């Protein structure tokens, strides 16, 4: 249970929004029609001013809070943050969480059946960018009758979407909450993503992305990709305190089977992930991370110039043990915002959890989020 006490939104039912208006993607391909799966928590107020959009990270989806049925063992991925009396309080805010275009949890993506062929899109599904996601999210807002978000919120890749909202649709967002994120990936991060993709692309069961037709899944590649990624989401101190050099047994076995508890943990995480996530979607999501660079898109390489388009207020939060998206990257965003005299609150939070800290229960982090959303509510949403 969260250290920040609050209630549950209870059982929720995913909804599907259908879009028949073609969407031109950044890569030049037009998607003629598509659907987005989403969930909502709380009630939209009379003047539709209390809506909050939750943008998910690489492996996230629309199920951010509550349960899908009463005997669910696991709640939504941000259930500790969203709900009655929680930092994003559903007694005050109408919260929308969606599965992005290209996803594998109901929204149109590579595993979706192409109505023209009767087969999954597979390798024919185009690459998508953060800008494309924001464009599709704006259409979802239109369908829901939301002219302006009280806030757009996200961690990691979700934070990039929140940042893009302020530049793509500056009139449609009042607050951007950007957590454990960056204005663009470093060379090291791009390298990690490429190694992860190569694990999938070189899996014999990948079949050029059309493994659906072969009745197989590139499990080995996806498993390795997740194991690598998971290492980068944790801190050395966090892994050390949880696992150290603990063995599963009493002595070394002098073979290549699992001997250390950290090995067992990573293999468990890899196996679990490969059992529910689509490999093609993983490839798309990591490329969207690589391509994200609003300074290049809007500012001729200058982030301050790019963010001169923004009109929102900002909360930028970072974690001191996050070495994948370090606090230095968040401070780059803060500098660009202050260059433009935009309202910005910056919080650098001590944590042992590394990049994954934005998903964890942490009193200081939760207090920062609660205070900021109290401020949004005080504006009269």
TrEMBL record:
Catalytic activity: L-homoserine + succinyl-CoA = O-succinyl-L-homoserine + CoA
AB hydrolase-1 domain segment(s): 50-340
GO CC, one annotated term: cytoplasm
Site (Important for acyl-CoA specificity): 324
EC code(s) of this entry: 2.3.1.46
Subcellular location: Cytoplasm
Keywords (A to Z) from UniProt: Acyltransferase, Amino-acid biosynthesis, Cytoplasm, Methionine biosynthesis, Transferase
Family annotation (Gene3D superfamilies): 1.10.1740.110, alpha/beta hydrolase (3.40.50.1820)
Signal peptide: none
GO-annotated biological processes: homoserine metabolic process; methionine biosynthetic process
Name of the top EC class for this enzyme: transferase
Transmembrane segments: none
GO MF term set: homoserine O-acetyltransferase activity; homoserine O-succinyltransferase activity
The protein's annotated pathway: Amino-acid biosynthesis; L-methionine biosynthesis via de novo pathway; O-succinyl-L-homoserine from L-homoserine: step 1/1
Sequence positions that bind substrate: 226, 356
Recorded superkingdom: Bacteria
Residues of the active site: 156, 322, 355
Oligomer and partners: Homodimer.
Function: Transfers a succinyl group from succinyl-CoA to L-homoserine, forming succinyl-L-homoserine.
Family: Belongs to the AB hydrolase superfamily. MetX family.
Protein name: Homoserine O-succinyltransferase
